[in-house]
Amino acid sequence: MSNNQRHNSFGETLRTGAEFQPRIGAVAARLDALHAGRDNANRVAQLISLAAERERRATEDPHTDSIAPHVDAALQAATAADRQRFETTQSLDASRAIVDSAARPSGEATGNLAIGPWFEQAAQEAMQGEVAA
Amino acid sequence: MLGRLFKDLTQQRIAQKDAELYRKLLRHEAQIGGTLFGPVAPGGRREFFCLDPNTWVWHEEWIDQFGQHQAKTTRYDVRPNTILKVQDGQYFALGREEMDHLVHAINTYVDRVESELYSFAI
Question: Which residues contact residue B112 at a Cβ distance below 8 angstroms, ignoring those fewer than 6 apart?
Fold first, then answer.
């Protein structure tokens, strides 16, 4: 193999092989996160809207189950799907810790506080407090 | 033996580059996200970005009336049935209006980031 051929072969490897894969992988990972983030937020917002509508109708006419069957079904399906998705994907991964510490005001000692068990516990307490309120 | 070592080192290097690029993309997204809400006062900085599928972050820095540098990071946690706002370790329920604004901002953010950063890949 001549030097020129060897150079071309190496260049081809760089362009199509292992060195190029991370670029594809990182972009794909970001796009996946973006779309999942958008879909999750929209789904929860829709869920809350449906719940508010249900409450409003129940207040207006407490003697009847005023919510339309298809809305009720959508509400329950969304709740179940969300819960399952959340339970299976819930991991406070390294990226959260990295960006969390980077996003905090400078000089503040952050460590890995965002990924401890306290985080989930605090969230549960906050949600319980919200329900109680 | 040497082949495996070389392969391991190559894979480590690829993983490092992957993580590094991921962070760079995230920071670039955050800059785009910071432009969604209008102008930032001189000396200030604003970033808004999707950290992961369940977390959105707003970071704001500004100079207060005493000339002191201030900063506030707000995290929105998307949970199965609600969205929680986290500031300084305190959790707050999101009001209906703020939730609508957040969702609107998220949809705009995704549109902008896709067209300005990832249009080549879509």
Answer: B32, B33, B35, B36
